[in-house]
Amino acid sequence: MDTVGRLVVIVLFEGVDLLDVTGPPEVFSLARREADDAVGYEVVLAAASLEPVTTGAGVRVLPDITFGEAARRSIDTLIVPGAVEVGRERRVRALVDPEVVERVRELAARSRRVTSVCVGAHVLAAAGLLDGKRATTHWSTARQLAAEHPEVEVDADPIFIREGDVWTGAGISACLDLSLALVADDLGEAVALRVARQLVMYLKRQSGQSQFSVPLEQISATRRVEDLRHHILRNIGRRLTVVDLAAYAHVSDRHLTRIFKTELNTTPHAYIESVRVEKARNELESSDATLERIASVSGFGTVDTLVRAFRRRLNTTPTEYRRRFRSSHAV
Predict the structure, then answer these.
(1) Taking residues 120-137, what's their average pLDDT?
(2) Which residues of 32-44 are buried (b: 16+ CB within 10 A; e: fewer)?
(3) Side-chain half-sphere CA neighbours of 288 within 13 A
(4) Catalytic residue among 31, 118, 182, 295
(5) 192 by DSSP, 3-state: which?
């Protein structure tokens, strides 16, 4: 391999998400700088023509090469971003251009590995590249992906998923995590961690780490449930029962359970536990508080209860979670 190194081709098309396009090149550029040898990455943007492409953010981007030119080269990594439209009630839907799908299918055949960023997974699925594979995408379009491509095992929770030489990443800033994982696979964990520090990222998140943050989940359809959710967040360190929440919402216990199932597809108990886990995760990442203190402020009461919840929801312990994901700036 020459000193130019691995060819990374990022697919461009009208309406593409801007960060999906600009995030990975930053990671690969830093990786080349941080690597101990001269071999790095050559990143190019490929489109149907060399005319400027207008992204979903309205920013115009100039392609480096055409799809035809890219198809004549040996590609190390093909990165496929996505595009969305936002309809009524702010519902997000992934957009897929059949011509782009055809080009991606053609380029994938010349690529050592194929990756998607965010809703780019919809393009890979349409190209048949995810058939029989487990894949992730942005949580807001996961149901759409599963409905339109039942041959794909959609898992909306992880930051990214690797299935052989096909990688799929979750939403927005997770493009950085996916790119760091690619760098780690190529150049080793030490280089990837140095890049993460240059990006002022706390730590490179593992693929199994959830892309969800409870307070940022999709809002419910009714103001009453949103009020309940905020009430839970404000009082997470206190005792919260179905009876308490039902009284707060002025409904019966049974009706409250039905509301949570209909609006949030979960039970009140499970939702409260997910919020407590999120609170504990934040404390573990950003503070030196003892497990006893974290169990108290997050409403678990005891360390044993905290540990059981972490094992159940994250398949790890609070101590191991802190070791992996704690910010170097924690005080």
Answers:
(1) 96
(2) bebbeeeebbbbb
(3) 4
(4) 118
(5) helix
